[in-house]
Amino acid sequence: MFSREELLEHVWGPQFDGVERVVDVMVVALRKKLGRNHLETVRGTGHRFNPSPATESER
């Protein structure tokens, strides 16, 4: 699990001088490419990757 701040630092570097919203935009783009259920958002904590998400019928 990675927080927004951790993703900003690891992906864009500690000198990044933009807005944190860029993480949300990239998560949306990755969900479109990987499939909606591979990237999970844990409210108030961050995001995590799930390589083998459960299908809707398994939930």
TrEMBL record:
Protein's recorded name: OmpR/PhoB-type domain-containing protein
Regions recorded as binding DNA: 1-51
Source species, domain of life: Bacteria
Coiled coil regions, renumbered to chain: none
Pfam family of the protein (one): Trans_reg_C
Chain ranges of the OmpR/PhoB-type domain: 1-51
PROSITE patterns: OMPR_PHOB
Keywords in alphabetical order: DNA-binding
Biological source species: Deinococcus roseus
